[in-house]
Amino acid sequence: MKSGLKSEVFEKFVKISSGIMNPLTSDWRNKGGRIMGYTCSFVPEELFIAAGMLPFRIRGTGSRNSDMADDYFESANICSMIRHTFNNVLTGEYDFIDGAVIGGGCDGNRHILDNWLKSPVKTPFLDRIFIPHASNELAAEYFLNQLSGLKVRMEEHFGVTITNEKLWDAIKLCNEIRDFQREIYTLRISDNPPITGAETISVIVAGSSMPKEEYRDDLKVLLSELQSVKVSEKKYQARVMIVGPGHDDSSMCDIVEDLGGLVVNDLTCFGGKVIFGSIKEDGPDPLKAIADYQVLTRPFCPKNLGAHPLINKEVFDKIKEFKVDGVMGQIFLCCDTWGGEIYILNKELREAGIPMLRIEREYTADSTGQLRTRVQAFIETISGGAL
Predict the structure, then answer these.
(1) What are phi and psi of 261, to 5 degrees?
(2) Which tens digit of pLDDT belongs to each residue from 89-113?
(3) Sign of the CA dihedral running 195, 200, 206, 212
(4) Where are the alpha helices (DSSP H) in 66-136?
(5) Gap between the Cα atoms of 192 and 184, Å rounded
(6) CB 3.0-4.6 Å disulfide test: which of 53, 158, 167, 308 passes with 286?
(7) Checking phi first, is residue 231 left (phi over 0); if not, alpha (psi -120 to 50) or beta?
């Protein structure tokens, strides 16, 4: 199912999100601009923007297999999202970046850096920041120290000065972007949203791989276009929310929406978690404002101590706000942290009378066979089987 949206800006986002290198990134590079790759949404883009760099989130888009990466990882124990992402590094998809910062969150993500350093890929700057496994003031202070150290190492390596003024400007820019992204999400509360779940993914993912000022301006245009769209016909059977890792491609949304569902919200690493809340734009230290936002404000990953109540609250709040009929818990094979979280969430949702379908899959989703059959049965169950 597609919304029928006619928009040059939206088509631009689709093209950018469907691959790795894109014309805007290439143009940035050709003009002498530096590009910093990163993994994990808890690695703050604001720091790279303040250094005059284009942040580019490293992902596995376009990967057909993980054969090369499997030689570095114990493939039976590492989720396929990590392996496909690193496979793109090994095949040269990210040769255009000047550096990469790996978010040391889950073990699989952390080992991307270990294997990158051992590989023949010689990226000029490679670094890591460790994501705290708790959400409290002490953890925020620890993360602030991580960011301060990274800032110094970037300044020394790239010969730049990251001033407080530049950081505050970057914070304001990213806050504006999150505001526009949330407004687009809010449009999906409508009984007949002007944009589908699959289309929304293209919009969000594009923002992680193009110049931020241009992305902000394009978002403003798209939002205006969407607000003027009048959708009078209901084209779906059930409203679905997706919870879990990844979500940097539209494969699961495509399956749901091809079979009569509509994905109206998500809590995923490339979706709802990215656009959550804002960084405080006041105070003496912009790095502290960033650290506090990442550690104390955002819903943490399930690997973190005390994360479940925050995840639970966000899921239940969004179910009510977006009139969700059923939840799909998506897990990549061998992702133990999300596996445990989805198990607990499934129990609590069912106790509340909210249907949930647990999907455990590889990073590259198969759009045929058993997966489609299970999704179709779930949609028919929660919708009563008729439009």
Answers:
(1) -90, 170
(2) 999 999 999 999 998 767 778 889 9
(3) positive
(4) 67-70, 80-90, 107-118
(5) 13
(6) 167
(7) beta
Tell whether the model's pLDDT for residue 387 goes beyond 60: no
Query: Which residue type is seen at 101?
Result: V
Contact present, 266 and 291 (Cβ < 8 Å):
no
Nearest to 37 by CA among 14, 17, 53, 18: 53
Q: List the Cα angle 134/137/141 in 5-degree steps.
A: 95
Question: What are 203-223's pLDDT values in tens digits?
Answer: 999 999 999 999 999 999 999
Assess contact for 238 and 361: CB atoms under 8 A: no
Q: With pLDDT > 70 as the criterion, what percentage of the chain qualifies?
A: 95
Mutual angle of helices 8-17 and 197-206, in 10-degree steps: 70
Residue type at 51 in one-letter notation: A
- Whose structure tokens read 């205006």? 224
Domain annotation for the chain: domains and CATH numbers: 23-163 (3.40.50.11890)
Q: What number of CA atoms fall less than 13 Å from residue 274's CA on the CB side?
A: 29
150/104 Cα distance (integer angstroms): 13
Q: How far apart are CA 361 and CA 4, in angstroms?
A: 29
**Alpha helices of 31-163 — where are they, by DSSP H?**
45-50, 67-70, 80-90, 107-118, 137-158
Comparing CA positions, the residue from 64, 57, 106 lying closest to residue 87 is: 64
Distance CA 103, CA 38 (A): 7
